Amino acid sequence: MAKHPVPDFLDIHPAVAAALSRGGAVVALESTIITHGMPYPENSSMAARVETIIATDGAMPATIAVIAGRLKIGLSDGEREKLATTPGAMKLSRADLAYAISEGRTGGTTVAATMIAAHLAGIGVFATGGIGGVHKGAETSLDISADLDELARTPVIVVSAGAKAILDIPKTLEVLETRGVPVVGYGADVMPAFWSRHSSFPAPLRLDSPEAIARFQRTRLARGVGGGMLVANPVPLDDEIPAADMQRHIDAAQEAARENGVSGKAVTPFLLAKILELTEGASLKTNIALVENNARLAARIALALAG
Ligand code: PSU
Ligand code: MN
Q1: Rounded Cα–Cα distance for residues 132 and 117 (Å)
Q2: Partner residues linked to 162 by β-bridges
Q3: Residue 223 C-alpha to ligand 1 middle, in angstroms?
Q4: What is the C-alpha separation between 291 and 271, in angstroms, rounded?
């Protein structure tokens, strides 16, 4: 249940509201992955499919987005399909979520904004693909995603496939450690690297079951330790692209971003689109598989928290 009166800009889908009020398992889903992370029509079919996976596992999916100034917790099929083709949809993080609401705009919510919205609605578990983090070259660009700060302050479990190799993984882990965010390798001793099951960096913590993750978060909340948790769930073996194969594409995408002077919130979408082009679609197939895999684990964590 929402801890505060429901703000008047929030629309909680009736099925999601019913699940929340009976204390059922609910999994939030982000929507920047729909508006900026994947091309149409794969974005639309992926978004439908992850909802089905969560529902099949016995939890309630709630895709979060801002549509014409309304913060939606759970979209209808029609709203979700329309969002996947909305030209000029904004990419909304902590800095601009309220702007889209007050200006009546439409946009996809990043990990940071989805955490804020999920917490407002009383949802404690969220599935995504990869989080934003510290970009390579951050020592000069200062490009560090607001996702990391949000993980430090908002008590939502984020299930990801780690951080993309377009990011500086060790620096991302350092910032998370500084900000007190637990990073849990799911059944893994090393951090996964999104398309690849392994990076060369150890996972700070390891847990092997959804129940153990639920128990850890309950303990943190009972101790009054604020903030979220990052679960790093390796992509299934059959779907992975080995890190060595990805590296040259990543390097080329980064070079293109530099040449084109891409900065600010445009960086992540630019790199994702470039890598898709360079891998001729292979990266997209893996991306879809890992989001589905994360949705499955998030549903099981939500069930363990509700049970
Ligand atoms: N990483 C991905 N796919 C994505 C994103 C990140 O592999 O779609 C999106 C997520 O919504 C994430 C956001 O929260 O990009 C981070 O953007 P930035 O680095 O500008 O904070
Ligand atoms: Mn950034």
Answers
A1: 17
A2: 193
A3: 30
A4: 18
End-to-end CA distance of the chain: 15
Q: What tens-digit pLDDT sequence spans the chain (307 residues)?
A: 445 567 899 999 999 999 999 999 999 999 999 999 999 999 999 999 999 999 999 999 999 999 999 999 999 999 999 999 999 999 999 999 999 999 999 999 999 999 999 999 999 999 999 999 999 999 999 999 999 999 999 999 999 999 887 899 999 999 999 999 999 999 999 999 999 999 999 999 999 999 999 999 999 999 888 899 999 999 999 999 988 889 889 999 999 999 999 999 999 899 989 999 999 999 999 999 999 999 999 999 999 999 8
Question: Which segments within 165-271 are labelled E, that is strand?
Answer: 183-186, 205-207, 229-232
**Which one of 3.10.20.30, 3.40.1790.10, 1.20.1600.10, 3.40.50.11740 gives the CATH number of domain 10-306?**
3.40.1790.10
Cis peptide before 182 (omega within 30 of 0): no
108 lines ligand 1 (CB under 6 A): no
Contact status, residue 88 vs residue 121, Cβ threshold 8 Å = no
Write out the residues surrounding ion ligand 2, Cβ under 5 A. Answer: 143
Nearest CA to ligand 1 atom 17: 132
Q: Which atom of ligand 1 is nearest to the CA of 146?
A: 21
- Quote the CA–CA distance of 15 and 59 in Å, as a whole number: 11
Measured in angstroms, how far is the CA atom of residue 123 from the centroid of ligand 1? 20
User: b/e map of 243-264 (b: 16 or more CB within 10 Å)?
Assistant: beebeebbeebbebbeeeebee
